[in-house]
Design goal:
alpha+beta, 2 domains, 6-stranded antiparallel β-sheet, two-stranded antiparallel sheet, 7 helices, about 20% strand
């Protein structure tokens, strides 16, 4: 069943922890980009082998139809999963300018980011943005069909939320991430229709200081607008 949904929140990281927090997340992004380059190089070798001495071999079509098989021997701890459209797009961009013969992927084609200053990274419908002046990180998922679900399945979501769970929250730090979806907006029940919290961190999110895992959304994980049951889970992927 379709479910158009979005999620967004800005979290203030304690000043003494902000730089290390930002570097951890952005370094993980760069590490993952380099891993995708490694995968793309291995896929390139397999594509060349598949088309060896075959006239008018359609490399692009072979890549699209056999993507999961082409990467099946390169997986490392679910770091790459074949149903991730963002991964498919990155690997395709590294290999092809068009549907003709694939070219050998190069590191200069990666979208690496500086880890020592503010920047934003984007994947699927989600983004993670840092603001050095305010010492904040913003998690944003644009509204789309099952967009929040897909965003939380991405390895970078696991990196971000694991890092947030390990922050030692201080006064005037933290924040709330909120969400809404097409079914909840149509709710006629008491308190229905408005945005609801999915994650709370630190004093600014209504929690105590100190290290604390994210709190369940308002109404709990069994929140049921209009009698529909929604189960919100979060899986952390480690590098």
């Amino acid at each position: 069943m379709s479910c158009y949904e979005w999620e967004r929140g800005t979290i203030r990281i304690p000043a003494g922890q902000y730089s290390a927090f930002r570097k951890k997340v952005l370094a993980a992004w760069n590490k993952r980009q380099k891993y995708l380059l490694k995968v793309a190089k291995e896929v390139h070798a397999r594509l060349k082998k598949a088309g060896y001495r075959k006239r008018n071999f359609d490399f692009g079509n072979h890549f699209r139809e056999n993507f999961e098989q082409l990467i099946s021997l390169t997986r490392e701890n679910s770091f790459l999963h074949a149903d991730n459209e963002d991964d498919r797009w990155i690997i395709s961009r590294l290999l092809f300018d068009d549907d003709k013969k694939p070219h050998l992927p190069k590191q200069k084609d990666l979208k690496l980011v500086p880890i020592s200053k503010q920047t934003s990274i984007h994947f699927d419908d989600a983004s993670i943005s840092f603001n050095d002046e305010n010492k904040t990180v913003t998690w944003s998922v644009s509204e789309n069909n099952h967009a929040v679900e897909r965003a939380h399945e991405h390895p970078m979501a696991g990196v971000l939320f694991e890092a947030l769970e390990n922050v030692e929250w201080k006064r005037k730090s933290g924040g709330t991430i909120v969400k809404n979806d097409e079914y909840h907006r149509e709710s006629y029940e008491e308190d229905g229709g408005g945005n609801y919290a999915t994650h709370r961190y630190g004093p600014l999110g209504g929690e105590k200081t100190g290290r604390k895992r994210h709190a369940p959304p308002i109404g709990g994980y069994g929140y049921q607008p209009m009698g529909l049951s929604f189960s919100i889970t979060h899986t952390t992927r480690r590098f």
